[in-house]
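Methods, example record. To illustrate the input and output format used throughout this study, we show the complete record for tRNA N6-adenosine threonylcarbamoyltransferase. The sequence lines were provided to the predictor; the line carrying structure tokens was produced by it.
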Amino acid sequence: MTIVLGIETSCDETGVGIVRMPDSGVPELLANEIASSVEEHARFGGVVPEVASRAHLQAMVPAVHRALTTAGLTGRDVDAVAVTAGPGLAGALLVGVAAAKAYAAAWDVPLYGVNHLAAHVAVDTVQHGPLPPALALLVSGGHSSILAVPDLAGPVTPLGSTIDDAAGEAFDKVARLLGLPFPGGPWIDKAAREGDRNAIRFPRGLTGPRDAKHDFSFSGLKTAVARYVESLDGDVPVADVAASFQEAVTDVLTLKAVRAAQEFGMDTVLLGGGVAANSRLREMAEERCTAAGLTLRVPRPGLCTDNGAMVAALGAHLVHTGAQPSDLGIPANSSMP
Ligand code: KG4
Ligand code: ZN
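The corresponding predicted structure is encoded as:
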């Protein structure tokens, strides 16, 4: 049995999670503390790196204390520390990596520097247990990728990614066009519930027969929404635009994820990243996976957006599978592939 504490600071959430990994390999989430600086960024319409770094610095030690208290543990009970080493905002990552090194050194336990995107995939194990080989659709503010994940601890095969905006970025930009607050994804999700998803037929990027099969493009869609909104001269039906835009994004994401799973012979589709919290995406993925005979795995919304549990979950898997710990000198790598 191993207790792993995970630290996440790649963007604007200071996350500290604690996972217990028994010898059976079925992880258990003991704590998941999050302190967000999102409100400090809202008035700028996007995350301000310097503000995020300072907020991490202030939130870090209290968040570790809260997580230990919630789990009913002390630092002496922790067997390993895991931390997001990249990708993400350089200054923000540095705070987490420095803190993780300090805790690992003070508690005299191994340190595991992990990839943020792999952690978005790994978090599902604390809700649904060990992951079989899966086709992962990772959709966040910075990434939109289709990956073949044979094993969490091993190399993944990128099958496709966005050629312009990430899905979350498209949600945030369209929300801004509609006068909704930052970050826009949850607001679009909410507004769309009152709207007609078939009201406006927005373009589905890269879905033509000659287009790159597993890649995404959302900038044309964003421009189409901008043109539509401009053409109305005020009086924008926000709920209908939100619902129609969301329908276009989720249509393409689920179409491509199912197609890739079928092409590469994978029985399980896993959704991860902040956009996987989207209610319509979850609903459509369930419908299309069921129709295609695929098993869908998607963590609860609170585990899809950035958090510390995802890092602890991946760390616990690495310890369980006997992976080599990182050197205490590991750098933060903002552009980690
Ligand atoms: O994974 P995440 O928390 O941070 C990154 O690694 O980027 O993802 C944040 C993104 C933001 O763009 C946010 O608007 C989007 O996830 N998001 C959503 C929803 N909740 C968060 N997008 C659509 N629907 C949601 N319910
Ligand atoms: Zn993320």
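Annotations derived from this record:
The first helix runs from residue 38 to 42.
Residues 11, 140-142, 168, 171-172, 183-186, 189, 273-275, 277-278, 305-306 surround KG4 (ligand 1) (CB under 6 Å).
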